[in-house]
Amino acid sequence: MYNTIIIGLGSMGSSALYQLAKRGIKALGLEQFGIGHTKGSHSGQTRIVRKAYFEHPDYVPLLEEAYKGWDSIQRETGKQLFHKNGLVYFGEPGHKVMEGVEFSANTFNIRLARMINEQLKMFEIPSHFQALIEPEAGFAVAEETIRSFIGQAEKLGAEVQTRETVMGWRLKDNYVEVHTDKMEYHTEKLILTAGAYTNQLIHGFSNQLTVTRQLIFWIKPEHPDQFAPERFPCWVVAEPEYPGIFYGFPILSAEQGGNGLLKIAHHAPGEFIHPKDLNKLNPEKEKEKLRSFLKKYLPEIGGDIVEVTACLYTYSPDEHFIIDFLPDTNSRVVLAAGFSGHGFKFVPVVGEILADLALQGKTELPIDFLRLNRF
């Protein structure tokens, strides 16, 4: 009998397993693929980490705790997982992104700075746009973060089973029964962090979670040295002609966990799909949209798109996270889902929250706005 089983060892599941192991709990993590796989929401090398949160200011206290968690896991592993190379926000004054950034920054005393010409030189930005930089923001190396949390969890005694598919689970009188394609397990508590595969584990919940495919574009510029992290920040452009935001990263070398290419993507509702169809790509329309964007805002890049990859978003109805006990499970089953394409920066704190809920039945961290009763 385990104290806690986690289904899904992507970003949130790996962090939760680490937190359970850190607290001396007998825990098992089950993953249907490998660790750091490419069939979920966390693939694609990097994720932006930021505090001046335009989506909703209630996230900022969680981000302050997450930043402490990033520092902690880096100290424990001796690896740099979060690179604070700055994040630039571009957009028209009054755009909801720019207003949201400034509101969160003013409310929580997050330092923002105006851009200087040297930092702007690669961008061709309309004269009426605002340009703000968040110096303490940057990017996390996604797959290496997951491997680090899993590695630390195993060192602390957690068990990990990969390439083992959960077929279903059942609530018993005083435990939860979990069936996989290999074994049957018993556990006091169950944590579901299955990302885009959550609907396959919770019947009747599909109206709450929708899965989309998001394309990631990789470019080989003419002068890649100009896009190294110490010279080129992460960036976000709120382009008024399109929904959502365009965003991008510096080039990471192989030593930094990268592929030597420039990564750019469009954060907006993608194509609704079943997760198994992730890599059935037809990116030509999206390629042309991105080329048009680059011609307007980053004409000095040179080069062209050399690769297109994809990841999955799992949207909640309001695009805010779902973190709560699953109804009618006597607080034995904890659900974390619907991170809607903006969850990775929270990985350290979500692991804390899930461990709190599983072990204590509550958390001191402010998650009331993420509970299921809002729907």
In short:
The protein is an alpha+beta fold and 375 residues long.
Strand content: 25-35%
Would you state the CATH class of the largest domain?
A: Alpha Beta
Q: What is the radius of gyration?
A: 20 Å
- CATH architecture classification name of the largest domain: 2-Layer Sandwich
Categorize the overall geometry.
Answer: globular
Overall helicity: 10-25%
| Count of strand segments | 20
Structural class: alpha+beta
| N-to-C series of helices and strands | EHEEHEEHEHEEHEEEEEEEEEHEEEH
Weakly predicted, low-confidence segments: none
Instruction: Give the end-to-end Cα distance, rounded to a whole number of Å.
Output: 34 Å
Number of domains: 2
Structure annotation, total helices: 7
- Return the average pLDDT rounded to an integer: 94
Largest sheet: 9 strands, mixed
Under CATH, the topology of the largest domain is which? Answer: D-Amino Acid Oxidase, Chain A, domain 2
CATH superfamily of the largest domain: D-Amino Acid Oxidase, subunit A, domain 2
What is the strand and helix layout of this fold?
Blueprint: E1 2-7, H1 11-22, E2 27-31, E3 46-49, H2 60-77, E4 82-83, E5 87-91, H3 96-108, E6 113-114, H4 117-120, E7 130-134, E8 138-141, H5 142-155, E9 159-162, E10 166-171, E11 176-180, E12 184-192, E13 210-219, E14 234-237, E15 245-248, E16 262-267, E17 271-272, H6 284-297, E18 305-315, E19 322-325, E20 333-337, H7 347-360
Parallel strand pairs: 1-2, 1-12, 2-9, 5-14, 12-20
Antiparallel strand pairs: 3-8, 4-8, 5-7, 6-7, 10-11, 11-12, 13-16, 13-17, 13-18, 14-15, 15-16, 19-20
Helix pairs in contact: 1-5, 1-7, 2-7
